[in-house]
Design brief:
190 residues; 10 helices
């Protein structure tokens, strides 16, 4: 079931990216400092990252995971065109390959959350399907990688629908309709 959800999300995000105007393509996502091009590049990495990439990348980034992801995404964004990045997402939509140490559901979490990081600053609505969102949330709440336990340590887990709670659990700030601005997220991947 996870692979079918992931394929659907990958293709949906590819459709969203393809639908962007040239102006929107240059705009910043909710991940501060990342344009749509950089985000698209990041989303191609889940099926194209091996152990050698992780080991060399983490050393180059001085053992900072976020810096490693940032450097990799920026390098890919500079190397590939918009259409090439979207094609890469489409080509691997049904691929079960994932980055080292990633669980089978981690790429789904990435696409569900980053789909919102793309849509919200543009004022677009991207519906997050409840069942995949709940499965992703259950994983994020248990996994030390995503940092949800630390985020909710003092406040507890709020009573919200799974899609909104998934965004909070992965470091995003919830916004209202008129507050979908860049900078309302304080994390990129986790």
């Amino acid at each position: 079931m996870i692979m079918k959800w992931l394929e659907t999300e990958r293709l949906g995000v590819a459709d969203l990216l393809e639908d962007l105007t040239d102006d929107e393509w240059q705009r910043e996502t909710l991940c501060t400092g990342w344009t749509m091009q950089t985000m698209a590049a990041h989303l191609t990495t889940s099926t194209r990252t091996g152990w050698s990439d992780v080991l060399s990348g983490i050393v180059k980034a001085r053992f900072d995971w976020e810096r490693m992801e940032d450097l990799k995404a920026r390098a890919l964004a500079a190397r590939f065109t918009r259409s090439e990045l979207i094609a890469q997402i489409r080509e691997t939509a049904a691929s079960p390959k994932r980055a080292p140490m990633a669980s089978p559901i981690d790429p789904l979490v990435d696409f569900l959350v980053h789909g919102q990081d793309i849509a919200r600053p543009l004022g677009r609505v991207r519906v997050m399907p409840p069942e995949p969102a709940q499965a992703a949330l259950d994983h994020v709440l248990k996994s030390p990688f995503w940092g949800a336990r630390k985020r909710f340590r003092d406040t507890g887990i709020p009573a919200l629908p799974a899609p909104e709670l998934l965004l909070l659990a992965t470091g995003r700030k919830l916004s209202t309709g008129g507050d979908n601005t860049v900078g309302n997220s304080n994390k990129r991947s986790k």
